Amino acid sequence: MLIGPSGVGKSHIAAALGLHLIEQGIRVKSIPATALVQHLQQAKKELDLMTAMTRFDKYRVLIIDDIGYVKKTDSETQALFEFIAHRYESGSLIIITSNQPFSQWDQIFPDTMMTVAAIDRIIHHAIIIEIDSESYRRKNQKKSLRNKQTQPAIIIVV
Description:
About 50% of the residues lie in helices and about 15% in strands. It has helices at about 10-25, 35-45, 50-55, 75-90, 110-125, 135-150; strands at about 1-5, 30, 60-65, 95-100, 130.
């Protein structure tokens, strides 16, 4: 579980972990949380949710990126919760990135009991890494502005 504000490298760390695992011969799939939820919702509409969830079981590791961007509708979060419960019961490893701390996950799940149950399943065997840093994009922007201010002006006279 990688938690921290936007732009601190959570997705890059998850991707690096995924690549390392692939190099070790482990099957890995990376998917944005919103795409996962859309896929699961469609399967649920077609009354084929269990099959859709089971298809992900061929991946020993599943990277779910940006779980905090899942919209708070009952059907979306219900499908996400069912998937979390499914993966928890199967013993498969999930790497999740989130820009929201657990205390704000009630913005993801519409029901307090569902929020607590999802967090409980995710953290049961988890290693939680909290990244408390400034966005790399913001740091680069500040550095770029400082460099522009310290560079001598070039004047061309024609």
